[in-house]
Amino acid sequence: MQNGSGPGPGDMSDAPAPPDGRPAPEQADGPGVPGLRASLEAIMLVADEPVSEVVIAQVLERPRAEVAGMLRELAASYTAEQRGFDLREVAGGWRFYTREECAPVVERFVSDGQEVRLTQAALETLAVVAYRQPVSRARVSAVRGVNCDGVIRTLVLRGLVEEAGTDPETGAILFATTGYFLERLGLPGLEALPELAPFLPDHLDDEPDAGHEPAAS
């Protein structure tokens, strides 16, 4: 590429590659402007759903072919380096996932922490799910004001939250609390949850949520 921008997927052959075969260090597009590889990694890190090449290309103002090439290059490099995560193309988009062979380690890490108190972020996320269920990750993130994808995954692995179908309009995965959640709280059902609605942000209420009461399990 020209005008001082970093090398695109087609220019990588011109850049000297490290002896171990990893991609050469990427140059930034300009002062304070990250290169394409860094930009893609940053987007993938915060994405809670697969992101399409078209959306990424629009956000970064880059040709789709260039974005697609770099995504595939990143995915190949993560696999070659045997990282604990990989970049996969699923459901028409791209997203980071824990590598399959690392699943036992992740499960052990989560299960070993069963007796450890939940973090403040986990408690807040669990409360939103409990009182808004069934609820999507996007909805939980909107209520809390931060991305909650990682926290929800932890709650699922701990058996406190589970998938509860999909939203008929958006197709987003919905989440609800489990029987184990009620067991840990010593509650007979969701109807026994203490009143918390007055503490939830009123401005986020919409028609589908208005008057919603959690169903008893």
Explain what you see.
By secondary structure, this protein is of the alpha+beta class. The protein has two domains: 9-100, Winged helix-like DNA-binding domain superfamily/Winged helix DNA-binding domain (Arc Repressor Mutant, subunit A, Orthogonal Bundle), CATH 1.10.10; 113-204, Orthogonal Bundle (Arc Repressor Mutant, subunit A). It has eight helices and five strands, in the order αααββααβααββα. It has helices spanning 36-46, 53-60, 64-80, 103-112, 120-132, 137-144, 149-157, 179-185, and strands spanning 85-90, 93-98, 135-136, 161-166, 173-177. Strands 3-5-4 form a three-stranded antiparallel β-sheet. Strands 1-2 form a two-stranded antiparallel ribbon. Strand 1 (85-90) and strand 2 (93-98) form a beta hairpin. Helix 2 (53-60) packs across helix 3, helix 5 (120-132) packs across helix 6 (137-144) and helix 5 (120-132) packs across helix 7 (149-157).
* Biggest sheet descriptor: 3 strands, antiparallel
Distance between the termini: 59 Å
Rg (CA only): 21 Å
Report the portion of residues in β strands: 5-15%
> What overall form do the CA principal axes indicate?
globular
Give the count of helical stretches.
8
Average pLDDT confidence is: 78
Neighbour order of strands in the largest sheet:
3-5-4
Any idea of the CATH class of the largest domain?
Mainly Alpha
Extract low-pLDDT stretches: 1-19, 204-217
**Structural class by secondary-structure content:** alpha+beta
In the CATH hierarchy, what is the superfamily of the largest domain?
Winged helix-like DNA-binding domain superfamily/Winged helix DNA-binding domain
The fold-level CATH name of the largest domain is: Arc Repressor Mutant, subunit A
Count of DSSP strands: 5
Indicate the percent of residues in helices: 25-40%
Question: What count of structural domains?
Answer: 2
The CATH architecture of the largest domain is: Orthogonal Bundle
- Would you list the SSEs in sequence order as H and E? HHHEEHHEHHEEH
